Amino acid sequence: MSDFAPRVFSGVQPTGNLHLGNYLGAIRKFVALQESQDCIYCVVDLHSITAQLVHEDLKSQIRSITAAFLAAGIDPKRHIVFNQSRVSGHAELAWIFNCVARIGWMNRMTQFKEKAGKDRENASLGLLAYPSLMAADILLYRATHVPVGDDQKQHLELTRDIAIKFNNDFSERIAEAGLGTEIAVGEETVNGYFPITEPLIGGEATRVMSLKDGAKKMSKSDPSDLSRINLTDDAEQIARKIKKAKTDPDALPSEPKGLEGRPEADNLVGIFAALAEKTKADVLSEFGGRQFSEFKPVLADLAVEKLSPINGEMRRLIDDPGHIDAVLKDGGERAGAIAEKTMRDVKDIVGFLR
Ligand code: TYM
């Protein structure tokens, strides 16, 4: 048993439109967790300059992600909602973690390889160090649980590696300063400053795929808008995109096993299940044997029913930037107070003079 107080942290980048994958894989889980946990949700603007430095509308993107958080039901009074660049501890701790993490660890990151593409030498140093900033986001608040989609799993493993190495390398100093907490690592119990964070990746939509290609992840950066359902799409756009979604000619199977080798069918059934809060098996027991021409309109109605209230509220909030900015300022102040304490401890552990 770990003695760390449970705390949830997660982040979303303010780049491009939020889509159904972000909603089902992450934001909807943020909302559910706030009922039982102490939560911090962050718009990670420092991350957004790693792949592209100059953004025309970064401020409105930050507000739009915040609006999505609030519209989905996150309560910024009971929990903390803020944008990362307000709290300088993220960048400070990331620097220390850059000295903890090894270049080999960073080079192995799938997301770095994908984003850097063939011209790795020309990628920003920030893109390579991205996971170290992500570890800093989480560990600055000594968060114990991180809800994310499946694509972030490797980054969370690296966060655990950074925490383990920091705890080991500084174990004596941590103990001397009386800053250690009991942590269970497998069978063993160690004394460390940072928790070994647990990823929360679960449910039927941990990896929502493109509507145009069942082998590709639904993504903000896909050039085809038909590949994704944006949280800002209206009912007509949602219905049109589902109607045009790629499928195969067969009817739906009556059990999940029948979805093997049918990535597009699997994806649509997964989306249905996640939206309806059911399992794929439940959905197939209802729709097995039916054609996509029958299934798609029911899926479109369900998606509209679940997404239009969020869409409407997002639009209302985006028209009130003063309110959004006040939420972020208040959240930033509360996050900053927690971060300050961590940075004081970390500076003492590393041995800086304060
Ligand atoms: P980002 O902004 O790309 O995505 C935000 C969240 O949405 C999830 N997600 C998906 N889930 C299911 N299916 C998909 N197609 C899909 N696409 C995206 C992501 O897994 C994520 O949970 N590195 C992170 C941001 C970050 C962060 C953090 C997250 C920075 N610091 C600390 C957690 C904790 C990212 O780029 O997410």
Automatic annotation (TrEMBL):
Which PANTHER family does the record cross-reference, listed alphabetically?
TRYPTOPHAN--TRNA LIGASE, MITOCHONDRIAL (PTHR43766)
Instruction: Name the Enzyme Commission number(s) assigned to this protein.
Output: 6.1.1.2
Alphabetical UniProt keywords? Aminoacyl-tRNA synthetase, ATP-binding, Cytoplasm, Ligase, Nucleotide-binding, Protein biosynthesis
Q: What protein name is recorded for this chain?
A: Tryptophan--tRNA ligase
How this chain assembles, per its entry, is:
Homodimer.
Q: Where is this motif: 'HIGH' region?
A: 14-22
Gene3D superfamilies attached to this UniProt entry? HUPs (3.40.50.620), Tyrosyl-Transfer RNA Synthetase (1.10.240.10)
One Pfam family named in its UniProt record: tRNA-synt_1b
A Gene Ontology MF term for this entry?
tryptophan-tRNA ligase activity
Name the source organism. Answer: Jiella mangrovi
User: Motif location ('KMSKS' region)?
Assistant: 217-221
Task performed by this protein: Catalyzes the attachment of tryptophan to tRNA(Trp).
Taxonomy of the source species? Bacteria, Pseudomonadati, Pseudomonadota, Alphaproteobacteria, Hyphomicrobiales
| UniProt similarity note | Belongs to the class-I aminoacyl-tRNA synthetase family.
- The gene name on file is trpS
